Amino acid sequence: MLLDLTGLKDETGYIKVETSVNPENITFLGRKIKMPLDFRLSLDIFGEEKEIVFAGDLKGEFLLECSRCLKEFKKDVNAELEFTIEREEIEDYSSVDVGEHVKENLILAIPIKALCRKDCQGICSSCGQNLNKGSCECVQDSVDPRLEKLEQFYNSGNE
């Protein structure tokens, strides 16, 4: 994603950029992240003697899958960006590519465990029923086989 820097006529200039971006091919933990709409990018760009400073934010939404119930849901994102690029790294002073910086900040905004809501009940491990929509008829009193002896000891009344 190229940004026009022609507004930074001298080394200590300032420009504000507002545009929409839609980074492609963002994957996180092996899953491709869907973005139904473009993100809104707002950047303040400050020219300094040896570097160019970028500060701003990204606003938009991800389409994620809930880690508990597997339902797809929208997650609002408001990610802050702040990075610098050395002037020596810029070949053409009229534009600079900030695509990787935008992508990095979007990846950092993705929750590791995405939940459609805080009190999501998930799905039944036996029948697959979405427990947010109703309870299931499965018997839930099965004990981990590694703990059966402990349960027998507890139920026998021994202390």
From TrEMBL:
It comes from the Bacteria. Pfam families: YceD (PF02620). This is DUF177 domain-containing protein. It comes from Halarsenatibacter silvermanii.
